[in-house]
Amino acid sequence: MIKEKRIKVFTFVILLFVLNGVCSIDNLNVPHLLHLSRNSGDSDEEVCIAFDEDAHSAVEFSFPIPEDETQLPKTVTTYLPSQSASYNCDFEEDHQCIKIWNLQNWKIPTYTSKNYIPILDSRWEDFSTYFITNKTKVSDQRVEVLRNANIGVSVRSNDAVDILLCEGFNPKSYPCYTITLGGNTKRDVYITKDETAEKLSEYKSSSPILSVDEWKTFNIFLSKTGQINFKENNREISYINVTDPNPLNILYLFMNSTSSALWKIHKNHFLFTNASQYVSFGPLLNVTSSTFCLSMYLMMCQNCSIYFYRTIHDSKEIIFEKRGFGDDRIAQEWVYVRVIVENVTDDNIQLFVKTNSNAADRFWAIDNIRNCVKNEFKMIRLSKSDFTKRNDFARMSFSCHSLNFPKWSPKREIVSSTEMDRFARTLRCAAGTWSAGGVMDLKLFTSLG
Asked: What is residue 444's predicted lDDT score, i.e. its pLDDT?
């Protein structure tokens, strides 16, 4: 009797089009993401690959929220092919790269309204994640905030949470506004002042306010004159818009959860100037190929312009320019840009930056400067941490998604360790060898078992 051998063939095919130096996949109506899951004992991990513009947007895993913070899985993000450089800089406090970018009349503000602007690009992934439960002492987790600032808050929770905005470091000792999300019905949003039961404003939704599977990002605005506005960013829904005739002088934000919840408070640092000038842009930058690529996030005023130059034989050449956005609302938002120089023959390149505007409120801000390549991927690897030890990880529900498209997630493909390693090697090779106009059909791996 011949025992029939069970053959499992797993073939993963990616069709990659590269047009004008930009790679894309065949479905342009959803985020460009792949989700691979390796299940092989101690090597269990989830991998999310982001392509095209999604490589620079906020991408995150959703997973069951554990009861203990030590059981949270860890994530590591890398760009492929790797382009590490000493001048890569996110301008966060105490990072050594800050010293490299000591530009004339540019500084790093730490306590301005622009530090709190809600961010849903790749920098969101670097914000600290707060694990808050009903056992967490409210005063243990506090964040300094400003009035007259848009404050970004992201939450993932199955049950109601409270955002406390207080005049002092202890919510029990100082007056506070309390914004409740969810409430008893999970569909209510309301704001109270101090510990009174009186609601300054409330909103009843037809659907749950929060989700355990989806990060919800909210924007809080408190003016010095008492205006309070609270809205959800993704759906542009305004939940609260009220004026308090006797406004509180808010100094701190606190987080309170009725069950295990994940939080992120949007506090960001960057390089900033108000000066119209022409100065050298950073140090002498190392060039490792014939194409030099420097990516960054840029924000500037409505009537501002910025130009990047390099010098060739004592003459200036504009290699990138960005003029005013024309819309004051858009001017307050970050945009992702890349400065690219082709056919570089030198080992190093010196850049110069010109900021130009006659506006009284002129400003320019730059963040997350990074050596890049034209066609790169973002790979997020999630380790299974203590989930694995409970041997129930395979039954867990994991998904990766873009925060700008939260309701969609790619299909989770289960692969072996050999397949995963082969995929990573092929992906690195593909990313490093693409050229404009090229087309690739990669059969990444086939397994028998």
From this structure: 33
